[in-house]
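Work Package 3 (structural annotation) set out to generate three-dimensional models for the target panel prioritized at the project kickoff. During this period the team completed the workflow that converts sequence records into discrete structure tokens, so that structures can be stored uniformly alongside our sequence database. As a representative example, we reproduce one entry of 219 residues exactly as it appears in the project archive.
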Amino acid sequence: MICKDDQNTLRARFRGFYPVVIDVETAGLNANTDALLEIAVITLKMDEYGWLCIDSALNFHIQIFPGAVIQPESLIFNGIDLNNPLRTTVTEQEALHEIFKMVHQGIENQKCSRAIIVAHNAFFDHSFLMAAVERTSVMKNPFHPFVMFDTATLSGLVFGQTVLAKACACAGVFFDKNKAHSALYDTERTAMLFCELVNKWKRLGGWPLSTDCKKSSCY
């Protein structure tokens, strides 16, 4: 049971879940066969007044796993040059190890029970992350295996927009289309959008719940 004194925490706001914003850039649409090329994650925190904001970030360029499929049209879409000498890469295993370490620390610090992915069209990012976990056999995956927060769905509800750039415009979040399809940039914009969605609900009076916590069955 969560009482009023504990309402301005991630644990209380999201039923024990620790929200982590993720974006991936890939060489195709099939998570099991197509290469994961970039991944970025941003953790969130809540201030003493219950406003959600950005905390920490990590991003990686990923080495193509053996046998991965590269769809040329995907590279045209995201603009990634695999031969760029400045593209310093790490293995999927190395990236996941660092990401999981940061997320586990956040879960512990926020006294949450499990991490949950926040992403725009979240099924896509979730599927590529989970496929990478399966390929690398990295242990102690902190993310829920199927529950996600999808900012496309939430933006459709709140703003009537599902495209990231248009949803950001409605939320007052600047979006530079020339920087789109960089995992880090899209993750930053998605994190800002998610924070605004959550904070807008708070400003409208939707949180904290008005029901007495001792009588509520919501928790």
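The beta strands are 17-26, 36-46, 52-62, 89-90, 114-119, 143-150.
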